Amino acid sequence: MQNDLDAGSEAPSASESPEVPGGATRVAYLIGGTGLFVAMATDAVAVLGRHTGFTLLGSIEVVQCCIVLIASSAMIFATLKGSHAAVHILTERLSAPTVQRLARVSAALAAVLFLVLAGAGLWLIHDLWGGHERTELLHIPITPLRLLQVGALLFIAALFLRSLFRRSAP
């Protein structure tokens, strides 16, 4: 079997056509790109302000909120592309049916992990629902960010479950 880390295997060949992104991939790009742009712009204005004598209060809060968008979309994108970190030292020495079985077990465990994380997020939302949680300076509500994160975790779990029940290897 071919090692994914062989020299030159990262770059697609010139004969390969670029992959057209699907709907979920585009949404992940849009959400993550928006979060990254807002975080970058906020930090740039805050740094410029420090050097010119005015302060942008709450810039750290805005960046922290953007990190939820960036992290959620990055996890979704990595799952859609099948590009989570993996070590192939053992699996490249196994037979194809064994690799497929292990990939299914891995998908099942990953789905369970993301479902547990989503459950924990829902638990936090439930416990703090009446608390009207907000950031200190800008009073940005935390609940919508938690709901977005839980939605992303559930979507990732669904992607792993889909790969678990496909006929071919995930």
Description of the structure:
- With 170 residues, the chain is an all-alpha fold.
- Helices cover 63% and strands 0% of the residues.
- The chain is built from four helices and no strands.
- It has helices at 23-52, 59-81, 96-127, 143-164.
- α1 packs antiparallel against α2 and α3 runs antiparallel to α4 (143-164).
- It is elongated and about 65 Å long.
- The relative contact order is 0.13.
Shape: elongated
Question: Main beta sheet, described?
Answer: none
One letter per element, helices H and strands E, the order comes to HHHH
Helix vs. strand class: mainly alpha
The overall pLDDT average reads 85
Q: How would you describe the oligomerization state of the chains in this entry?
A: single chain
Task: Lay out the secondary structure.
Blueprint: H1 23-52, H2 59-81, H3 96-127, H4 143-164
